[in-house]
Amino acid sequence: MSPPRRQRRTPGHEPPPPPPEPAGQGEEKNPERLYVVAGAGEDGARAAVDLVTLIVARTEPPPSATPEQVALVRMCAAPLSVAELSAYLGLPFSATTALITELLAAGLVQARAPIVRRAVPDRHLLEAVMHGLQRL
Questions:
Q1: What's the pLDDT score for residue 29?
Q2: Using a CB cutoff of 8 Å and minimum separation of 24, what contacts does 101-107 make?
Q3: Full-prediction pTM beyond 0.70?
């Protein structure tokens, strides 16, 4: 019988480190993607929208629109808040705001203030209901 030809590893040898992951494997490791989605911007100004601002599409997206812009305009056939759009697109609020700013400038979408319900009902309405009930 011949002796084994393999060499045994001694405890001092460590396995080689794993190769680095290629770029683009995750959004958290690829900040360039958000820059490409959001664009450089003319002057860096953003529209004054917050998380509850409603966005509504005015027209169909043009053929020159980016995939993210097309998706945003198509989703806004019914009013959606900026927070909902950000969640559906899987983009951070800042990138979504940049997209909305571009679409507002192009006139493809319209921003509306959220509908705020009054905390206290109108006094005149309550009096009218009370008088109507008293007449019965």
A1: 54
A2: 101/41, 101/45, 101/46, 101/47, 102/39, 102/69, 103/69, 103/72, 103/73, 104/47, 107/58, 107/59
A3: no
Strand order from edge to edge, sheet including 54-57: 80-81, 54-57, 109-112
Largest CA distance in the chain: 114
Whole-number pLDDT of residue 106: 85
Among the residue ranges 5-14, 67-76, 93-102, the one predicted with the least confidence is 5-14
Exposed (0-12), middle (13-18) or buried (19+): which is 98, by Cβ within 10 Å? buried
Burial 41-76 (b: 16+ CB within 10 A, else e): eeeeeebebeeebbbebeeebeeebeebbebbbeeb
